[in-house]
Each structure stands twice: as C-alpha cells, then as structure tokens.
Amino acid sequence: MAKHTQNTEVRYPMWYVMQVRTGTEENIRCQCQRLISSNVLERCFIPYYQQKKRFQGEWHIQERILFPGYVFLIAQNLECLSESLRKVIGMTRLLGTVFSPWDYYKYRKPASETGKGRTVSSHVHRDHRE
Length: 130
Prior knowledge:
Helix content is 22%, strand content 36%.
C-alpha cells in the first residue's frame, strides 16, 4: 500500500521496534491502539510463540512473547509516529530514531503507575486492529 506524496515520492510502510519494560508489552500495545490514529499507525503487534510444557502428567500449550520487552509498529511516516508515541506512557525508546531516552523521560510515569497489562491470547500475535 504505497502512498504518493506531493513530490511524487512513493512511501512504503516501514516496521519499527519500540523498546518497553519487560512485562508491559500488552499495556503499551493497548495504549498505542487507543492513542494513535490509524492514519499514523497502520499496525501494532506483539509476536507470540507457543511452547509445550509437561506438568501434572499432561502436555500443555503455553503462549509466550517471542521478544520480551519489544512492541512492533508499522507506519509510513516516522515523524508523525514519533510525535504520537509521546502520548504513550511507559515507552523506553523507539529503536532507530534520533530521539534520546531523555526526550521520553519527561513523558513517562513510574512503572508503579503503568501496571503490567500482560495477558495470554490464543492468537499468534496481537494486532491493534483486532
């Protein structure tokens, strides 16, 4: 889904990785879903994998976050995405941008105020369009 801009440059969606505190991935994903316009953020997700564990004499399937401490974002405009992410409480940093952790320090709340927000899903990934 490429979009044409005024100077006829074609922009393709890019994948970005947001670093967050481990255990807050679902909370951050939900904030992105709620606070960032779908015009800016095309998709926000957390990859999961399924793991078989044997306990109490039976096999059980457990879902685990594939990359703990990271949330994946798909967007076309990095500047708009970076500006929108300032509303997200608990984000550590967006990898690959020029923003330093200090830029986000003034927008973050202590972990005790953000909560864990971790849930287990039967889906392989969590998507903000679900």
